[in-house]
Amino acid sequence: MPVRLVSQEELPGPLKGYRLIERLGRGGFGEVWKVEAPGGLLKAVKFVFGDLDAMDEDSRPAEQEAKALERVKNIRHPYILSLEQFRVIDGQLIIVMELADRNLWDRFRECRGQGLQGIPRDELLRYMEEAAEGLDLMNNHYQIQHLDVKPQNLFLVFNHIKVADFGLAKVLEGVRATVTGGVTPVYAAPETFEGWVSRFSDQYSLAIVFQELLTGFRPFNGANTRQLLMQHINGTPDMSALPINDRAVIGRGLAKKPDDRWPSCTELVRALKMSGLPPAVTPTQSTPRNVPGSGTATMLGPPGHALADSVQATRMAGTGSGGSGRLGADPNGPTGPLNNRTPPPAALPPLIKPGQGGPGSTPALLVPGGSGGRLVTPGPATGHNPTQTLNRPVVFQTGRMGSLGIAPPEKTGDGDLFPALVVALGETGRRVAEELKRSIVDRYGATDRVPNVRILCVDTDPDVTVESAPNNPVAFTPRELVSARLNRSTHYMQRDSLPPVELWLPPGALYKLPRNPGPANGVRAFGRLALFDHYRTIAQRVRQEIETFLTDDPLMQADKATGLGLRSNRPRAYVVAGLAGGTGGGMFLDVAYLLRHELRQVGYLRPEVAGVFFVPPADPAAPRSAALGNAYAALAELNHFQARRSRYQTAFDKAEAPITDGDAPFARVAVLELPRGTDPAKSLPVVATAARALFHEMLTPTGRVVDEGRDVYRNAYPATGPACQTFGLFRLSWPRPEVLAAATRRFAQRQLQRWTGKEAAHLREPIAEWLTQQWAERKLAFESVLEVFTAAVRGALREEPERVFDALVDPLRTRTPSGGRMDANGSVAVLEQLLKLVGKPPCENDVLPSSLAVTLSTRFDELVKEVEGHAAMMAATFLEVPQYRLPGAEEAVRQIGEKLKHQIESLEPVHTDLDKEVRTSYGRLIQAIGALGASGISATVARKANAAEVVDLLRSYPRKRLQLHVLEMCLSVYRRLLGNSPEYLREINCCRAALADMHAVLGRAGEAAAARTGPGKMILPDGCKDLDAAADQFLAGLAPEDLLAFDQTLQKDITRKFRGLGNVCLKPAEKGAAFRELLLTKARAFLDTKLDHSDPAAVFFRSRTQTGTAEALLAEALDEAMPDLKPAGARPYEMVVMGVPPGPDGERLVGLVRTALPDLEMTAAPLPDDICFYREYPQVPLGDLPQLGASAREAYAQMGNDHPAHARVDVPWQLPVT
């Protein structure tokens, strides 16, 4: 028998001293445990299924594993998991092995959890190289094929590969061997399905493993073994997820004929490494390359191939102002330029070495220099336009980007939507991103309804993690948050892929990192160091977000949700950061150049990156601070690169070419001033202002008007040096989205309150009527229960019990036809037969139950299960009935208990009397039978009377005893049901507690939302001082019939999705979050149809009935929108935009402002849901900012070597002249 596997127990026999700790995994051939060996060493032990002592089918896995162990036990290699011993204990094969850290599948899932496509390419190639060396050793020196190469069998020990699990290993005979089954169909080579093995079978599996771990997609996707078999043998592998240059290499590894594959696994990996290298390009004189129709040089590069030029020109050309702007439209039309070109070759031959071409092949496309490009092979032509490709970065590609190629042709329209990527750095950037998400949620219900807006937060603070709060709609998801925590100084000196950081770090800065590093803590150089350390993750995340812009899907979805239409499919990236801190202040310039580089890499040749930055106040009277010194240094560095005083060049990773850029990092820079101090509550208005401005820019028509006004001024008055903008805004809003959100939360809470209430007086009568009907239908009345047991007795006896009893007693009469003496022994024999049927009275404590008692007991068990189900159903029914819910359920349980008590109380006296009769009858019967054997004159006289009494008692006793049995069973049924009532109440109270917890969660979400209303003033109904009051007033006006209709509709959704409210309440951890989401979604949709849809302008005039109050409020709003940051010197030009709802009321508002302020230059813009004043200084010289003034420079100068202000020292910074 197999060894008993229980945690903390020791193994028997030869492995005594090995203690089981925990099971690591279980498969088809056995299970693996983590074990503590003698001396405290940790090992892995595999327990193989099957009994080697038995010669049956179940022993085959163990026999196969034992044979494989004999083949591989002498192999020793650093990349092969070492086998320490194997034993057979009680017929079970037990293998002791080296304990690994994890396998490649664990590493792959870890990368996916971080938002990556798969394992980064450089890292994966290192693993593949080591696995290939181990597999080739087995093949070349021992003629063994592993035959089970898959991610779960490639283990990691200190980030080095260990090939393991040789249960299927086969020795080759010549160049092939037979296979007996057991291979994993997903990774198996075609020949294994035909029953034989070649020297190249493991290579085939390794090629599949590489594609899966790199891209997340396998080349064969069959859903079952038969489909996989057919695909492996006859199908073409789907390699579209792979980077283009890897496809030919993997394609050869997946050749159907083993001899057509690579000579070895090592050759396969070497070819993959070569495919990722950039080509050797002869330097040539750079000449400007123009996008057709632009008239401006957009990229410098060597003269490319004619086909490359024509493809790039065609794909980069926009539709111009004449485009329709319709999403998904083909700008070239059916006879456009793309369709007039000769398509490139469908594919390269199976093997083309770098620098070579096959017969008739077209030269590979060349890409502009300085972009880290490489040779790219055209993919297969489709049935529509020919496929064009552009270079991709050498490492960390994602499968989708590699297959999509360059950016789509430009499309423009008269709408407002465009792709936007917001990269928020540090605490301040993260808070802006959170407020932006809040604005989106308040307006559209969820951020995923506008997928054209992507958010990515990077922070060095280790305490900033993904919040596990499904009830918080603005919590960051794992995809949106990148933790870039710092490490110890030794970490940066030991990383092979990291370029030397001492070249740019301030002297000695690396050794000032604490032993347990936390956030950057205001040191800008540490923020930049964190970017270098986590560059691969951050760059990968940026690339994944940019991928979403390569199709029209996000814009089409956003258009469907908002109706705003297309403005452009050209993306705009935003970098949001506080310049006074270490994280944002240290990263912002490098992140901007990284964004520009990645956008260019996919074909956006004129990338647009905007900066939104926050600086502390520069008060000459206040003490100088490190925050102000940091801001001065950051602005100085920004001024340096905006002025193009030196070319940006940085190598973040040894495996990638440096990022170089001669242009300014930002197309536009906005600077906002934070209030003094570090209290987040004080800075919230400024943070909310920035978030609201971003929301208006990306998701309202006002953003387009502001952009156009800004461009007009800049074109008319070009800046002579680096400039920025600063702005302020103030909203007069009818906060319909906010009122709707508040009302939704409060309505959901009240719904839960109604469900969990206690008042049930008004429910008693209808529940009583319903219970009476159910009592009859479910046969719970006494007569029905009595008939169940009576029928059970009839069924057991196969006739009426009275006839059976009479049949046993009647022979006593026939034996004394003349009334002679009755035989006492005969009477006793009849009594014993009757007692076997019905038993003695309960007081006699009969040891053996009678046959009918057994029958009744069996039927009792069956009936109790049935009626308990009926009672539970009746108790739970009202949970699912609107207007009843928990109060109704409790009232039903109460009335069920009362009915049961009444039934028991009415039967107990009957039971007492009947029990007394049974005991009396039995006692008289025993005495009467005893008197039959008496002698004497008096006995002779009484014998005849005794004989008659015996017969009567023998006839009556079994009847009464059976009646008592049945009555006891009926009472037991009712008592059992009554005993269950407390359990029903406990379950109802559990439901009440679960719903109360959900109520509290909604309350906390409401508190968080109520604290943020953004910069401005709300226009609320008369008598309402805040959002909650407005929501309450609105909810008070809902009609009872509407509430009932909502509850009924909601119940249908609850039943369909969760199979009932009770199921939700009893599994709150599993279903609670989804239920809250359903409740809020349905409540919002219901209330949206009831809430006033008037625009803010109409509400504004309705709420301003007194003369003069409207003008005063508008003037106040205009003053409040004044930018807080005041530049030094002359007041710059100011742009004022007033966003108003379209329509007569909006026009009336604009006219009111222009009448009250005739000298104000103001542009009106459509803004459906707000009245908003936006004031901006669109062109402020950076040198005019107070944060670059004398007091700020003094704070900068006071920051010595202990706290260096600059993020890097390898650039000769030129401080701005103010």
UniProtKB/TrEMBL annotation:
It comes from the Bacteria. Residues 315-345 are annotated as: Disordered. It is an enzyme of class 2 (transferase). Its EC number is 2.7.11.1. It holds the Pfam family Tubulin_2. SUPFAM superfamilies: Protein kinase-like (PK-like), Tubulin nucleotide-binding domain-like. Keywords: ATP-binding, Kinase, Nucleotide-binding, Transferase. GO terms for molecular function: ATP binding; protein serine/threonine kinase activity. Residues 18-277 form the Protein kinase domain. This is non-specific serine/threonine protein kinase.
